[in-house]
């Protein structure tokens, strides 16, 4: 072990004291500025979400797969069937396109036969979330 000379030890101690004296932690507060349109957008989303709530009604699933294809399928479906609403539901790791909201199974099956002409892999579901 190396022993320092007294003057070297004094300089090292003085350096440590001065270094600690001049350094200070960051001080200040955080200020967040938010665009007013952001709050408006959140309010609109809150209004829309109650319409998408899964309930005891029957639905038709026309697609199951990746996001881009699900969006394309829903867009095409809305062009083909203007009378039915549709939504994309994410269930990890895939996206599902659900359309319609039918109170009875008979009504849903009638529409399913019509939808199957254009979307052969469509199936009837009754979500229970």
As a whole number of angstroms, the C-alpha radius of gyration is 32 Å
Name given to the CATH homologous superfamily of the domain at 56-125:
Sporulation related repeat
Number of continuous helical runs: 4
Structural class computed from helices and strand pairing: alpha+beta
CATH topology of the domain at 56-125: Alpha-Beta Plaits
Low-pLDDT parts are none
Largest sheet, described in full?
Answer: 4 strands, antiparallel
Helix content: 40-55%
Shape: elongated
- Span between termini: 71 Å
Organism: Flavobacterium rhizosphaerae
InterPro entries: SPOR-like_sf (IPR036680)
Signal peptide: 1-25
Protein name: SPOR domain-containing protein
